[in-house]
Amino acid sequence: MAKGYWVSVYPAISAPERLTAYDKLAGPAVQAGGGRTLSLLPSRGGRVVAHEAGITQRVVLIEFDSFEQAVAAYESEAYQKALVALPDGVERDFRIIEGID
């Protein structure tokens, strides 16, 4: 079964410190849904090299055991509460993608 991934890129964050409430809710919701954070850059000290139209703002990659599990975690009540906490001034490009076996 192909894995599922959440891919989030944040082109604009006007007040990064305001993401705290979202992070506190989203982390446990992701874990409860079976997700594993593979990358949270650059906030955890990782390096980013941006090319073409790339940005060096926050990039998050989360892995799930299946695409269906990734969709279910997004649709969960716990994660929907986290989304409400996303502050104004945060622009996010979010995708759920299916991996290749």
TrEMBL record:
Residues 3-100 form the DUF1330 domain. Coiled coil: none annotated. Gene3D superfamilies: 3.30.70.100. Pfam families: DUF1330. This is DUF1330 domain-containing protein.
